[in-house]
Amino acid sequence: MATIKVTQTGSPIRREKDQRATLIGLGLNKMHKTRELEDTPEVRGMIRKVSHMLSVEK
C-alpha cells in the first residue's frame, strides 16, 4: 500500500485537546518528528484535522 511521510512542524501548545490527541494518534508528539503512515482515508482525515501543524510528502 502507498505511504505518506508526515512531519510535525507546529507545536501543540495552546491547541485543543482533540488536536493534541490526533497528533499522538498519528505517532507525532515532538517537533520535527517524522513518520511514514499508510495512505488510508482514516489517516487522511487525521492529517486534515491538524494540517496546520504538519508537513506532508508522498
UniProtKB/TrEMBL annotation:
GO cellular component labels: cytosolic large ribosomal subunit
Gene3D superfamilies: Ribosomal protein L30, ferredoxin-like fold domain (3.30.1390.20)
A Gene Ontology BP annotation from the UniProt entry: translation
Domain Large ribosomal subunit protein uL30-like ferredoxin-like fold: 4-53
Alphabetized InterPro entries for the sequence: Ribo_uL30_ferredoxin-like_sf, Ribosomal_uL30_bac-type, Ribosomal_uL30_ferredoxin-like
Alphabetized UniProt keyword annotations: Ribonucleoprotein, Ribosomal protein
GO MF entries: structural constituent of ribosome
Subunit composition and interactions: Part of the 50S ribosomal subunit.
UniProt similarity note: Belongs to the universal ribosomal protein uL30 family.
Annotated protein name in UniProt: Large ribosomal subunit protein uL30
Organism expressing this protein natively: Sphingomonas aliaeris
